[in-house]
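anyone seen this seq b4? input:
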Amino acid sequence: MFADGATQVFEANGRTTYVENGRPTRGEWYVDDDGHFASFWPPNYRAHYNLHWMVEDGAIVGLRFTELGRGSTFDGRYRV
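predicted toks r here
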């Protein structure tokens, strides 16, 4: 879950669904040739990120996405 309440699910087959305000958007995720996490949102938006674990009290609680070229960050927390 992201700070704004949006959620995102990553499937093993490379598909992803981002849900914001109840509206789903479907895209694809993959690891690019340089080892960066990347996502594609049709028809033409593609982004590449560095990923870092978010750790609290010794436990991994989510991922921080830092977009390459822009430097913007998004913190995604795991939902249990």
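The chain has a mean pLDDT of 93. Residues 7-77 form one domain. kinda curious what u guys think
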